[in-house]
Structures are given as structure tokens and as C-alpha cells.
Design brief:
The protein is α/β, with parallel strands linked by helices. It has helices spanning 5-20, 54-59, 65-75, 103-108, 136-146, 167-176, 212-215, 271-282, 296-299, 301-319, 332-337, 340-355, and strands spanning 25-27, 35-37, 41-43, 45-51, 81-88, 91-100, 130-133, 155-159, 184-188, 197-202, 207-211, 241-245, 248-249, 255-256, 264-268, 286-290, 326-328. It is built from 12 helices and 17 strands. The strands form 5 sheets. An 8-stranded mixed beta sheet has the order 6-5-7-8-12-15-4-16, sandwiched between helices. A 3-stranded antiparallel beta sheet has the order 9-10-11. The termini are far apart.
Length: 358
């Protein structure tokens, strides 16, 4: 008895899903670059800097680099469209994928959106002149969709990600601030300064806001989806260019979230990404200076801690009888061997939280 065409198609879709989905696993073995860092991955160049356009720098999450690149690529006809994320028009507490065609649309979509959204649904793999902006996990998925070694497909831009809170986290914070998600007409998670505030305006015109330290540190960042807590790539290793906050640090070396002009870390992950960065600097779009990637160890402590203790968290989850994603090509065992006590603590904590259903 032969299988029906439908059943055969379903099996192929299942195989494609397992190959592409970062929730199943992430494979970095085919990534190549002249330089490599055990925490922050492979790269062709690293800089600090910002968008030279003052409005873009102000509106962006940090230095406005991704917005500036998007606008420049569109205006110079290097790109036909940019797939990104923005607020839903009739429900601004919700985040939706958007297709960006103009500077005005890029500015409207600037700033982080700390909520679930499927950016990749706007990804056009058949348009080689399109640009994709998305989370590191999505950059991996679209790179697998195209083939990891693809140099001619759409440009992939990503950003440092500490995880995605649930939509309920946003709605809960609005309520905690005295508002209602169904009665607001605008919402920004940050931006309009660096890092900026969580701010919303209700239908009567009243504005409420709290600091980034309060919104992310005390609320949103504590309500991450489980998969994000065992993410191996929070720094966009499968993008052409990855951008993150280059925080100022206090006397102890810990990031300070006091408001100032935005400043980003910019990493060219591929040869194509390097060329784009260099051309954007030459065109006056970005103001960058060479950086030492080791400085990120203190400036981005969450990324360092998550990468060095991920083996412990995966072990705790596995011992609790749950499936875990498979990671290859990240040298995680070597990193964990340098932090045995921290990994043992992470394993025990993850195990207990898992069996308690937390």
C-alpha cells in the first residue's frame, strides 16, 4: 500500500520543521569567520557607535543603528523592503510583523517590542533585495530556510536579546500602572532617549511611564517564555549584522541604565555584513569606532551568564523528564567546565522549578 501524496507532504513538512526550528535545536558548526569569541561568537568586525541622524538615534532602542541601516538600504535602492515589527494599529499593546518601505515607516517601527511576534512571517525569501530584522532565534530559522551559507539571499539583521516576555506581561504592567490594554492609543517599551521608558498614552490623552530598570528589570524580564531561558544564541550569531546595547557601567563594572545618548555595539557576522557596515560608515550613516569584544563580558552580563551556565539548565530540565533543544558547535561543555559550581546550582534550580511546574 503506497502512502498518499498528502501524507508524504506532511512528512516532508515535519522534516523541514525539525531542520529549521530553533526550538528543536541550533547548529553553529557551519558558521565561519576570521575571529571568534567563546561567548559572543564568530565575527568579521566589532565597533561601538550610533546613527548619525539625531532623530533616528533618539527614537531607536539604543544607538538607532538598525533603523538607520534600514532607512539607508531602502533609500539607496539596495533594499526593496524591510521585514520588521511594530505596534498593531487598533491595539498598540500588541506587536505585529510589518513590511517597511519608507523612512517614516522605519521610524514608526523603531524601538524594541518586548512581546511575542512572528517577524519571519513577513520574510520574502524570493526577494534577494529584501531585509529581515528579527530576534536571534528568527535569524537562525531564516538562515536555515535559505541555507546557512547563503550569501545572495535577503540581508539578515538582528539584535542582542535577553528573552521574550509573554503578552500577559505587557498587559499586566499596563494594569499595574493604572491603565487597561484595550484603552490605550500608543505604547513604547523604550526609546525616545536611551534606554528610554515604558510609556503609554490612553484614549483620554493621559500619559503613564516607568523607567526601563523598573519595566524590564522588575516586571517584563521576570516573565520570560521558558524556551528563552535556555537560549544558546542571544547575540544574533546567524545574522549578517547584530546590534546590542553598549551600556555605560558603574564603579563595579555593572551596566548603568541612566538616560543618555544611545550607544550600540555593532558586530559584522558575515563578509556581507562587514561590507554593509563599512559602506554605511563611508556614507556617513553610522558613526562607529573599533571596539574590544572582551569588554562585552561586563557590559552584557546576562549573555555571559546564560552561555556559561546553559549546560546546567539543560541538565536540570532533562533530569526532570522534559525534552531539551540540541545545540552543536558552541563548545558549551568547555565553557561549563570553567563554571562547575554555577552549573550545578543552575541544574538544581531548573530541576526544582520544572517539577513544580514553574
Amino acid at each position: 500500500m503506497t502512502a498518499s501524496p498528502l501524507a508524504s507532504d506532511d512528512k516532508q513538512l515535519a522534516r523541514d520543521f525539525r531542520r529549521i526550528c530553533p526550538g528543536v535545536g541550533v547548529d553553529a558548526r557551519r558558521l565561519t569567520a576570521p575571529m571568534s569569541h567563546p561567548i559572543f561568537g564568530k565575527y568579521f568586525g566589532v565597533w561601538t557607535g550610533y546613527a548619525t541622524d539625531d532623530l533616528i538615534r533618539f527614537r531607536g532602542s539604543s544607538g538607532g543603528v538598525l533603523t538607520a541601516l534600514s532607512v539607508w538600504l531602502l533609500e539607496t535602492k539596495r533594499a526593496t523592503q524591510v521585514a520588521g515589527v511594530g505596534a498593531q494599529g487598533d491595539a498598540p499593546s500588541r506587536s505585529v510583523p510589518v513590511r517597511i518601505l519608507t523612512r517614516e515607516e522605519a521610524l514608526a517601527a523603531s524601538g524594541s517590542r518586548y512581546a511575542p511576534v512572528a517577524n519571519a512571517s513577513q520574510y520574502d525569501r524570493d526577494d534577494a533585495k529584501s531585509v529581515f530584522v528579527g530576534k536571534p532565534c528568527e535569524a537562525y530559522a531564516v538562515s536555515r530556510l535559505d541555507g546557512t551559507d547563503s550569501k545572495d539571499g535577503p540581508v539578515r539583521l538582528s539584535f542582542f536579546c535577553a528573552g521574550t516576555p509573554s503578552q500577559l506581561a505587557t498587559d499586566g504592567l499596563i494594569e499595574k500602572m493604572g491603565g487597561r490594554a484595550d484603552r490605550i492609543r500608543s505604547l513604547r517599551y523604550r526609546g525616545d532617549g536611551w534606554p528610554g521608558s515604558f510609556k503609554f498614552e490612553d484614549n483620554s490623552g493621559d500619559v503613564s511611564q516607568v523607567s526601563y530598570d523598573d519595566s524590564w528589570g522588575k516586571h517584563l524580564g521576570r516573565k520570560l517564555q521558558w524556551r528563552c531561558k535556555v537560549c544558546v544564541d542571544g547575540t544574533g550569531e546567524f545574522a549578517d549584522i547584530a546590534v546590542g546595547d553598549y551600556w555605560e557601567t558603574d564603579a563595579k563594572g555593572y551596566p548603568s541604565f541612566s538616560d543618555s545618548e544611545g550607544n550600540s555595539i555593532v558586530i559584522a557576522r558575515t563578509e556581507r555584513g562587514l561590507a554593509i557596515v563599512q559602506e554605511a560608515v563611508a556614507a556617513g550613516v553610522l558613526g562607529l569606532a573599533p571596539a574590544n569584544i572582551d569588554a562585552l563580558m561586563s557590559i552584557q552580563p546576562l549573555q555571559r551568564i546564560r552561555r556559561t551556565t546553559i549546560i546546567g539548565r539543560l541538565t536540570g530540565r532533562f533530569l526532570a523528564g522534559r525534552q531539551v533543544p540540541i545545540y552543536r558547535g558552541f563548545a558549551l561543555l568547555g565553557l561549563s567546565a570553567r563554571s562547575l559550581r554555577q552549573n550545578a546550582r543552575a541544574a538544581a534550580g531548573t530541576f526544582l522549578r520544572t517539577v513544580r511546574g514553574k
